[in-house]
Amino acid sequence: MRIVSAADERFAAHFAAMLHSAWTHNPTAEFHLLDCGIERKTLADLGGFATARGIRLTVIKIDITVLGDLPTSNYWSPATYARLLIPNLFSDSINRVLYLDADCIVVNDLTALWQFDLGKAAIAGVHDADGASLEREEIELDDRTYINGGVMLMNLSVWRNDKLVSAAISFATKRSPNLVDQTSINVVCSGKVELLAERWNLQLHKSLGPKQWLEPCIIHYSSEKKPWLYNDVLFAAIYLYHRNQTPFPIKPPRAALRSKYRRILNLFIGRRKYWEQYIIARRCQAFAKSYFDKIEAKQSSQAAGASKRR
Fold this sequence. Notes:
By secondary structure, the protein is of the alpha/beta class. The chain contains twelve helices and ten strands. The protein has helices spanning 12-25, 40-53, 78-81, 86-89, 111-114, 129-133, 156-161, 164-175, 180-188, 236-243, 260-268, 272-309, and strands spanning 2-7, 30-35, 56-61, 96-100, 104-106, 123-125, 151-155, 193-195, 202-203, 218-220. The protein is globular and about 50 Å long.
């Protein structure tokens, strides 16, 4: 299994949390970090952390000048576009990679995802209707197969044969879509997309109701719902656990995304939307408790095994 992600200095700590989570459940995976401007000390800390844990991590320095014509902002950095370069960064003998955004957390074994049959598709990902709805009307999209770019199983052979890297960068440069790289990928891969089950990319920007509840394999802290900024983000405790196993620990944030008193008031008057959010929050808390119980049991088993070998 080959897992690729990208980060600059701003997102390096979040990548470390993702790395720890993915390795926890997939200890034999190979990890590749696309370095889009990470400071030397941070890289040294990441390298030491990976070595100490036995994580197979390779850092690939990215020449971000190649992406110089693409728009940047406080939200869009060159690291956002690094995934466009992946097919050209690996030898022709490597035909498949799993790309994960740095703001993802893996909470289960990814073997089934890695072994997904891509056939002749260029990518497989989870549907993102909300993302498609944000795009400009003049950009033609297939809403039914528009996927979120935060988790992508990539068929590098198709990307190379169809020259999709240059096509995506050209589209992004000339058409400037609102979701620059994600929409560009969807456009150039149109007709070559396979849809994955929601559990492989639970996007927290989506409205999740009790009937849509599912236990995730990958949690994606998409949009403004970041667990390092707000204490009431779903599954925030899981992110903080993995983050605090890295060289970049943090304390739980004090700020809340939504007013606690407003939630209580709306629950009291019986507003359905708030009761559904409450139910989902309780289910996420139960999932997190079960998750930590499993990790504790696994660690106890490993410690007992190591004790017997002494």
